[in-house]
Amino acid sequence: xxxxxxxxxxxxxxxxxxxxxxxxxxxxxxxxxxxxxxxxxxxxxxxxxxxxxxxxxxxxxxxxxxxxxxxxxxxxxxxxxxxxxxxxxxxxxxxxxxxxxxxxxxxxxxxxxxxxxxxxxxxxxxxxxxxxxxxxxxxxxxxxxxxxxxxxxxxxxxxxxxxxxxxxxxxxxxxxxxxxxxxxxxxxxxxxxxxxxxxxxxxxxxxxxxxxxxxxxxxxxxxxxxxxxxxxxxxxxxxxxxxxxxxxxxxxxxxxxxxxxxxxxxxxxxxxxxxxxxxxxxxxxxxxxxxxxxxxxxxxxxxxxxxxxxxxxxxxxxxxxxxxxxxxxxxxxxxxxxxxxxxxxxxxxxxxxxxxxxxxxxxxxxxxxxxxxxxxxxxxxxxxxxxxxxxxxxxxxxxxxxxxxxxxxxxxxxxxxxxxxxxxxxxxxxxxxxxxxxxxxxxxxxxxxxxxxxxxxxxxxxxxxxxxxxxxxxxxxxxxxxxxxxxxxxxxxxxxxxxxxxxxxxxxxxxxxxxxxxxxxxxxxxxxxxxxxxxxxxxxxxxxxxxxxxxxxxxxxxxxxxxxxxxxxxxxxxxxxxxxxxxxxxxxxxxxxxxxxxxxxxxxxxxxxxxxxxxxxxxxxxxxxxxxxxxx
Length: 632
What we know:
- By secondary structure, this protein is α+β, with helices and mostly antiparallel strands.
- Among the domains are: about 1-175 and about 195-220, Aminohydrolase, N-terminal nucleophile (Ntn) domain (Glutamine Phosphoribosylpyrophosphate, subunit 1, domain 1), CATH 3.60.20; about 230-370 and about 480-550, 3-Layer(aba) Sandwich (Rossmann fold).
- Helices cover about 45% and strands about 15% of the residues.
- The chain has 26 helices and 17 strands.
- Strands 2-3-1-9-8-10 form a six-stranded antiparallel sheet.
- Strand 13, helix 7 and strand 14 form a beta-alpha-beta unit.
- Helix 5 packs across helix 17 and helix 9 (about 320-335) packs across helix 10 (about 340-350).
- The longest helix is centred in the last third of the chain and has 27 residues, at about 475-500.
- The radius of gyration is 24 Å and the shape is globular.
């Protein structure tokens, strides 16, 4: 696990300045405190920061092939590298290290850009092919590792983090209003663009080739929901076999490995499957909050730790801890993401850093096997609509009235949704006033800002995935959309940035592409059945996970930021959102923002919107206003 960066001048006569590469590497030092390396040759420069996990002695980068014509910098882990190493030796390749990085070099020699199709793991990599005078960038299938780039008519820059690209003074800092609206629509930024004009994300499952002054981006993988004919019993057996394999592979390391415990099924299963399979003692980590009256995950995490004998560690964070970290949260995240649990992840990885360099998480199980309540809710709405027949609109109106009478704002949407497409339901999962289907955004946005955006275009960044790859199976359709958007551009951005802020590698066995492909072959009713979400996963794991955890209601990770924004942090929130500098940006109507704050203080329910506005403003101050960025 590391950080990478580099530059390619499109004029081959123009060398890259060593000082620039050194500054790019300095900005991502937290990603690799164990060393750094550089390669400079005429118009190309490659940089690497190292977090030593595999081949601690000889795994330094950049790394080359036998004659030095192929040079690589790589961030990630390849879990099938030993198998690939043996295969490449039989094909005549000579190795000088035992690292997974060198396997990629020789695999590229053997297969060219198609080498990425053979890799099983998480990765962002850059290869300079001296003979072809070609730069090759690639990102893993679902986007576990980030990779950004910036292209002008003079140069291509790339890096694991945006701040390394901004180290080059040729990169202008201009905000895209349409991406601000997209962020407020989704609470993250789906798609290739970032808030900074010209700075883009290489899409997951894709590679980029830069040659002769031109670039080409090619998708090499997608998730296809092709139904199999497996019985439930056979599917359960195959699932357990795959889970065992994935966890075993993700345990490969030359350093101790720890486990994040959330108190849920997935993280507990990861710990249970790893028990007894490591040469090092296994440790586990969880976090709680000082706020009384909220769900506490710690008792369930302790239960899992006791069951499997891990050395368990806990931490508690307060509203002050939450507030103190917010400027650095924005600095490390780089893209404004409304993800308060990310701050908890920062503190838990900070705790874990005292003991381990590698953490394993249960991230991805919900997206693979249908773990969110909205998947179940959608199925029940579909069934109700079918049973209602011509009475559907009347029943829908009844649902709306019932929802309002019980004070359930989200339930009021179910009535209209009785007769609208899946896409509408997808956007109905929150009550955000910024959503395309809500129409209240017009009250919040200033007239000038409103004229610079297109709400339909913003919504389309998720809508373009509806109907792709999943046939008519409603659950699988939503799983596909979430895998292509929410998972990549929210959850995995958070997972990478917050752990790497503490120089910790996070591994996610449930996002192994072979496991995802297997899950995609299962029908929706293997995943959501009746009122049970993640049906087949829970069934397969019922002997591996304590029943108290299997049967408990899904809690997520309940960071009490909504309470804090109405109490301990209310003055801070008003100060930042109503500050003259914030209002002068011209995005929002002051009166509408004041109204939003007032409504949240009175009745609650708008914490996510307010936190999004606050992180957006902190982002502006960090990346647009300051000459010197916040440092970790």
